[in-house]
Every structure is written in structure tokens, then in C-alpha cells.
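Lecture notes, part 5. Sequence design as translation. It can be helpful to think of inverse folding as translation between two languages: the language of shapes and the language of residues. The source text, in C-alpha cells, appears below.
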């Protein structure tokens, strides 16, 4: 009997899980559901548009979706168009791979003011995610503050700082490129609660700040230690040391030599975002680090800015009554309940890169196969029938290829593609 599996979410963790199932259960059928008409999750909508080569990881996943035993159910939101219980009835095993794309709050006064954006929304906006098409961030003042010192904070600052020419080979959404180029930006501030050694940057991404055409990255040399102390070993120590040497280069830069200054400031925790009807500035509190933790000192300072982007982490939202454990779906080694399993950011939280999801998805799928490879359930046929009766316009993989072909065809300049940023536009391509 053929085994049928459903994966909810076509991001990296879901696609690695699909590969593992196809390898582990020869002849099985795998259906990949996504709420959007286009697959690959944060590869399309998270990875920075000027890191287009990273998005090529999706090619291996595209080959998987193209296999005759794999079916893409795009434009199908589980919980809205079809329920989790229905999928559990139709499939031998169901895998939640829905990611964790909701911004963690700062929990400070003023967070709800117009002009405050989570990185999910802001990154989604410049990457053309349909949910954030109409975000229209307030970029009408000369400064933006970004809270967080990880790679996503770097992405946000870099995309804001780059010129049209520097973005020419990117797939940034046209509406965002226009808005950024029209913004009168002079200052970008990046704040970290802890010190330079604790920052989550990777050296390659940090190093890119040295090469910006219209922005100079600066750091107060007094915030930098002479060397990396602490209990770091091996690769982690190497990363910290490389970061420190780049920080030292940035500390030698002079503010004002380029039109935009991008200041990385450590030991500063957000205390309040202030403004009458919108963001007018952010109040920061100095910290010191003890045993790796930021301790507030009571000393504050204000930075005037027109927008604040929070890049401090993400959480998964409880889908369809599934038990949660903080910001992740409660599970034991990937098992949630019955024939339901979980992988990726919705399982372990927002950590790691695209490849990090591979070994974990394979591991969880091995366990799932051991318990649910018996077959006997109807699989995609039943799901298809139900979705048809409900009038859901399922976007399959050939449909997706048409959407991408149209995006490539309408791209201008050096841009590899100009994404459609509304679901209606994507469906219109399909007639
Ligand atoms: C801003 C940002 C930039 C990043 N840049 C890089 C980078 O440059 N390089 C790198 O290696 N890693 C990068 N990462 C990390 C990488 O994107 C993640 O490791 C990876 O995407 C996590 O995969 P996932 O499958 O768990 O989640 P996701 O990629 O978020 O995929 C989840 C999928 O589930 C779908 N979904 C959600 N709910 C439903 C539902 N109810 N029904 C159906 N479908 C649903 C979503 O539409 C989405 O397609 C970045 C992350 C972020 C946030």
C-alpha cells in the first residue's frame, strides 16, 4: 500500500522533510501545503534580496516539487481552507513545518506607535511578501533605529543603506526600492543590549558593511575589548575573533565621510519609544554585561528617529489548538500527537541557517517513518476533492512555474525577477 504524507509549510524544513520521506519510503506520495501560492518560505521572503545567490538553495527544493510523487498544494492555508484534523485523517503522517514568522515584542511603552515595525513585517515588505505589501513604513525622517545585533538587523540596515546600483542584481520589490531611495536617510542606528562579543553576526555579513557605497559603518572603539575572552571554543571562537577584527576596522572609520552613517551601538537596551502620533525617537538605557547577561544601569539617552525596526527574534503561533511550549510547538523529539510531527523553526525556534534544518528534518522523519509508513489512507485525492468542494483555487507546481516565469519576464535592469506582491496578481497570471 502506498504511504501518503502531508507537509504543512514549503520552507526549508518542510522541503528537507519531503526529501527525507521520499528517500526513506520509496514510492510514497508527499503533498506539500503552503498558505501562499509560491513555495519556499523564508528563502523567498526572508533571505535578503541582495543575497540572491543564497536563494538558489531553492533550486534543489524545486526539483523535489517537480517529482511525479510530490504535489504542491499552494494557496491552501491549513486552518482556513482545510483543517489539521482533516489532514490527519487523510494522511498517514502529517508534518508541521510552518516556521516561526511572528515578531517577538520588545515589551516597552510606545511599541504600538505608527513607525514601529517587526523585522518579519519590514523584511517581508522589501521582499514582496503579500501580507506586508501595504505596510508603507514611515521612512520620511532622516533616521531609523534597528533594535537587535544579529544578521537580520544587518540585512535591514544594509538594504536601507544601499544605492539603486548596489541593489541592481537583487530581487527587492520595486515598491520598497522606490520608497528607500526616496527616504532622506542620514543615520541608521543598530542597538544591542549586550556587547560586541555576544552579538549574533556572522563575519561574512558583518564584513559587507565595509563596502557600502553611500554609508559608513561606525563603532565607538571604547566599546571594543582587546581580545575575545570567555569560554568560547573552536568555530565559535573563530567567528567571535573575526567579528572583533571587523569591528576594529569599523571603529577606525570616520562618521560623515559618506552620506549615511550606520552606527552600531552596544550596551544599549530599548526603554521606551516616544512620539506624539508616531515615532519621534527611542530612549535607550545603558547596560553592562555580567555573566553574559545585560544589566540595566539606569543611565538613559535619547536618539531621534522616524522609525524603529525590531529584530530581536520570532515565535511560532499556536496553530489550530496544537499545544505550545512558549514560542514553539510542544513536541517530544519532533512528535506532537497521534500522526502529527513538527520540524524546523516551529519545532526548535528561530535558530540556524537554511542548511541547519536539513539534519533535523531528516532525523524527525526517520522517527515518523518508523511509526507511520503503513499506508492505507487516501492522501491527496481526498484533500483535493474537499478543497474543490470548498472552491479553493489550489496552485500546483506547474502553476507556480508560470508565476515565476512571468516574474522573470517582467524584471527590469539587472533584477533577476520582479515578484508579484499580491496574491490576486499571482492568480491572474494563471487565468
Ligand atoms: C529575515 C531572515 C533572513 C534570513 N536569511 C537567511 C540567510 O541569508 N541564509 C540562511 O541560511 N538562513 C537565513 N534565514 C534563516 C532561514 O530562513 C530559516 O532557517 C528557515 O527559513 C526556517 O525554515 P522553516 O521551514 O522552519 O520556516 P519558513 O521558511 O518560515 O517556512 C514556513 C512555511 O510555512 C508556511 N505556512 C505557515 N503557516 C501555514 C499554514 N497555516 N498553512 C500552510 N502553510 C503555512 C509559510 O507560508 C512558509 O512558506 C533567515 C531568516 C530570516 C527571518
Amino acid at each position: 500500500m502506498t504511504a501518503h504524507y502531508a507537509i504543512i509549510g514549503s520552507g526549508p524544513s518542510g522541503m528537507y522533510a519531503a526529501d527525507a520521506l521520499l528517500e526513506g519510503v520509496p514510492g510514497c506520495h508527499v503533498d506539500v501545503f503552503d498558505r501562499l501560492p509560491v513555495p519556499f518560505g523564508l528563502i523567498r521572503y526572508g533571505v535578503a534580496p541582495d543575497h540572491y545567490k543564497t536563494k538558489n538553495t531553492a533550486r534543489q527544493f524545486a526539483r523535489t516539487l517537480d517529482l511525479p510523487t510530490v504535489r504542491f498544494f499552494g494557496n491552501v492555508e491549513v486552518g482556513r481552507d482545510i483543517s489539521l484534523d482533516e489532514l490527519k485523517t487523510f494522511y498517514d503522517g502529517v508534518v508541521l513545518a510552518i516556521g516561526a514568522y511572528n515578531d517577538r515584542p520588545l515589551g516597552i511603552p510606545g511599541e504600538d506607535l505608527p513607525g514601529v515595525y517587526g523585522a518579519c513585517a519590514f523584511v517581508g515588505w522589501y521582499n514582496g511578501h503579500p501580507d506586508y505589501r501595504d505596510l508603507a513604513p514611515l521612512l520620511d525622517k532622516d533616521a531609523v533605529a534597528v533594535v537587535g545585533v544579529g544578521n537580520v538587523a544587518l540585512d535591514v540596515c544594509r538594504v536601507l543603506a544601499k544605492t539603486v546600483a548596489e541593489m541592481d542584481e537583487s530581487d527587492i520589490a520595486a515598491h520598497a526600492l522606490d520608497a528607500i531611495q526616496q527616504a532622506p536617510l542620514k543615520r541608521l542606528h543598530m542597538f544591542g543590549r549586550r556587547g560586541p562579543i555576544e552579538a549574533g553576526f556572522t563575519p561574512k555579513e558583518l564584513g559587507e558593511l565595509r563596502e557600502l557605497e553611500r554609508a559608513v559603518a561606525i563603532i565607538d572603539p571604547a566599546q571594543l575589548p582587546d581580545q575575545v575572552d570567555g569560554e568560547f571554543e573552536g568555530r565559535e571562537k573563530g567567528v567571535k575573533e573575526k567579528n572583533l577584527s571587523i569591528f576594529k576596522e569599523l571603529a577606525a572609520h570616520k562618521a560623515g565621510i559618506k552620506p549615511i552613517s550606520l552606527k552600531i551601538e552596544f550596551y544599549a537596551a530599548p526603554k521606551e519609544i516616544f512620539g506624539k502620533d508616531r515615532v519621534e525617537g527611542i530612549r535607550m538605557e545603558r547596560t553592562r554585561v555580567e555573566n553574559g547577561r545585560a544589566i540595566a544601569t539606569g543611565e538613559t539617552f535619547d536618539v531621534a528617529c522616524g522609525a524603529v525596526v525590531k529584530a530581536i527574534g520570532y515565535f511560532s503561533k499556536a496553530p489550530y489548538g496544537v499545544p505550545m511550549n512558549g514560542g514553539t510547538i510542544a513536541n517530544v523529539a519532533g512528535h506532537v500527537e497521534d500522526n502529527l510531527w513538527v520540524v524546523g523553526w516551529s519545532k526548535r525556534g528561530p535558530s540556524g541557517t537554511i542548511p541547519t534544518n536539513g539534519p533535523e528534518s531528516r532525523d524527525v522523519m526517520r522517527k515518523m517513518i518508523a511509526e507511520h509508513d503503513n499506508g492505507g489512507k487516501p492522501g491527496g485525492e481526498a484533500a483535493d476533492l474537499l478543497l474543490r468542494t470548498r472552491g479553493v483555487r489550489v496552485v500546483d507546481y506547474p502553476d507556480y512555474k508560470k508565476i515565476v516565469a512571468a516574474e522573470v519576464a517582467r524584471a527590469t535592469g539587472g533584477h533577476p525577477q520582479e515578484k508579484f506582491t499580491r496574491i490576486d496578481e499571482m492568480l491572474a497570471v494563471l487565468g
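The translated text above is only one of many valid answers, since several sequences can fold into similar shapes. The radius of gyration is 23 Å.
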